[in-house]
Specification:
Helix content is 31%, strand content 19%. It contains 13 helices and 16 strands.
Amino acid sequence: MSDSRPTVAVIGGGLSGTLVAVNLMRYAARPLEVVLMESSGDFGPGIAYSSRDPQHRLNVPAARMSAFQTAPLHLLTWASNHLGREVDGSEYLPRGLYGEYLRELLVDERTRSKVTAVELIAGEAERIVRTRDGVLIEHGHGDAFAADAAVLATGNLPPAPLPNLPEDERIIVDPWAPGALDRLIDTGTTVIIGASLTAVDLALTVARSAPRGRTIALSRSGLVPRSSLPGLREPAPPPSIPTGQMGLLPMKNFLSSHNRRMTAEGYDWRDVVDGIRPCIPGFWKCLSIADRQQFLKGMAREWEVLRHRIAPDAKVDLGWLRQAQRFEFRRARVESVVPAGRNLQVIVETAEGQDRISADQIVCCTGVGTEIRRATGLIGHALEDGIAVSDPLGLGLRAGSCGALIDHTGSARGPIYAIGPLLRGELWETTAVREIRMQAEDIALDLCRGLNVLPPPASEIRMETGE
């Protein structure tokens, strides 16, 4: 850390951290050092895009998954060159391929950048300490390094552990842990606890790995993922965002009325949802804390099912598996799991009463964690030390302009920023590429200004679009 070469620490090397680092490299006009830390040592993909199963598809068409808002054809150009064929914008590419895109993007920008040096550290940050000149990042076994500013890009919280699960090698608690899916059996019954997009991915993986088996996915709400329609569709016109506070019921009625108008004009409900989505942070801010809490209890899952949809190909694959009686969704809540010899007895509560399902293995796909106050490690220490505070509902961290963290004094004085899922409590809609790429650019520009690494005039900013 020095006056001539300021340093930015980016904690987390998945999508969010990679895009922050890349934007810093693109916008910095004077010498800058970026230290990018990733616990897995695999920089770019993160958990979300690390899958090697070609059945695991993006749930958004390729034309809308560019790393840069200002270069919408960037991914399409890269994918066409990488695959040796023209990639259509309506394609739902494999998630692993998108991970390669992010990995290569980071490598390319490091090679091209003339003024920014990027150091990659394979390790886990344990604590961040604010100093007079910036921050100190503690990691490893007593190691630490100083930086002028830091960006927390740690992604989603891990799922909360399910109660009443015995320790048993036949229960896969974290399907994305290294080597977890290598343990999948090729016969018998697999029970998936949860009905999220991850559950769909795992159902397809199990079906391929266990051609003689069947899969049962359990959903407490009975709501299961919907699918997108084929093709590259235009979102419906967005509704106006009200000014001032608005109650949950009036907001629901307002959006329902908007949906009816749009469908009357010929838009599919999916187009309406996609048109509403960019407005969600604005609507979220109009709700009181009590109304937000009520939304979480009664409506959040319904919104997520409509908003986070599976690719059309995945719907076809699931339909085929259902026809072959190899896959089914059941509405049920898991009460307990009891080892019983060669099987696991899953005791569930259904609308008809208690039931038992005999399983050969269980995979937990209950979604991401939603309680920031239970966080451990770096985020837990930041809360303990007062560097960060949780939002009133405990969904994420409080932040001000450009994601600058608000500390225990109520100040967003920096120099610590948060991006992506950590801002769920502030924005609600903050986990997809569309939102994260905009946040990454805003943070990078704010850091460049604050560190006096000023970008050149907009007309001169180098943006290698690939178009």
